[in-house]
Write a structure and sequence with these properties.
Blueprint (H helix, E strand, L loop, with lengths): L1 E7 L2 E7 L5 H8 L18 E4 L2 E4 L12 E3 L8 H12 L9 H14 L5 H7 L11 H12 L2 H4 L20 H6 L20 H10 L1 E9 L3 H8 L2 H5 L5 E3 L7 E10 L2 E14 L4 E10 L4 E15 L2 E13 L10 H22 L2 H4 L8 H22 L1
Parallel strand pairs: 1-5
Antiparallel strand pairs: 1-2, 3-4, 3-5, 6-12, 7-8, 8-9, 9-10, 10-11, 11-12
Helix pairs in contact: 2-3, 2-5, 3-5, 11-13
Bound molecules: FE2/S2 (inorganic) cluster (2 copies).
Amino acid sequence: MTKVSLAINGRQIEAEVEPRRNLADFLREDQFLTGTHIGCEHGVCGACTVLVDGSPARSCITYAVACDGAEITTIEGLEKDPVMARLRAAFSQHHALQCGYCTPGMLISASDIVTRLQQADEARVRRELSGNLCRCTGYVGIVAAVRAVMAQGGAAAIEARSRRGPVGAHAASTPSSPSRSTRTQPPAYAAPGGEVRAPSSVTVEQWRAVETQGIELVQSIEVAHSREETWRFLSDLDAVTRCIPGARLTTAPQDGRAQGQMHVKLGPIVSAFAGYLEVEREDAAFRGVVRGAGSDSKSASNARGIIVYTVKPLSERSAQVDITVKFLLTGALAQFSRSGLVKDVADHITRMFARNLEASMSGTRDGAQPDHATLDAGALARAAVWKRIAGFFRRLFSS
Ligand code: FES
Ligand code: FES
């Protein structure tokens, strides 16, 4: 058990919690704040959205111990909030709810939208709400209610809030207590001014954290080419990068080093990571290690990863590439780490990589696969998301 101290709806709480207890269960079962609903428990549906230090966060994928020193606001804590009063009236007037299951999370996200944007067209409101799912309404009433509150010219009347947007979307603030300094993780990779640093500037402790705490993926790919041919192809950093959906090099490789970009879309967050790769190869063992680190200023997220690959012979004309990937996310995208969604997307990207690798080595790439630069990595995420959404709806309808 770990002792945490946090404020919930303005009330200071001290509690002993298991390190694995998520904030949603802590709020519902330990604090009896059942206004926070739980749908998918994977960070997809948004039903469990609460405010952490004033920013919307998915409480089902946030550990309670990670909120030590935080201010948590649930739907119960917004009873007298002027923005929420307007939204409640508008939701009622525009028939923006039926069963009401999604409504607490929807209202909290809606309050973020109207205070952060103040004005937005329908398409923008729908995009902003895309992280909250509703099985009943078809969203028409919800969008109308949000826009109605915006149209009230609320910017002046509504209490101003500066720290809205998803948790992690803002630069880390000055820590106000030791516990908070561990919770708001400063960018680990981006240098001041957004300059991209080489992985060698990432500290030993940070690489060790990737190895000990990172999400691990293990995959084996069979290719219809000899071990030597496969090993040679893998030495071409540019060609290999072009096999990764959404990735491209932005500088020519030099001595096994290069800079690149990777586009990722997870839930409502779109990220374009700029980063740096370093490759070490052991020819005798047919083994390579790639270390990469990047950051995305838009979502204030950082990623570090280590890929180890080994090429084994299967026959004279075929080989197996064993790949182990370990990666760690911090910032806004880290919300999704526990959900398995990140793993799904990474798994999907690995499968696409295997297909592109085989096609590129066989010279059939152009016919088999569109140009990597135009490949929508977000579509991969949506495919993974959809499986979880379908499961979420199945469970709700069968309950
Ligand atoms: Fe948390 Fe669905 S229950 S996002
Ligand atoms: Fe949204 Fe029922 S009103 S899920």
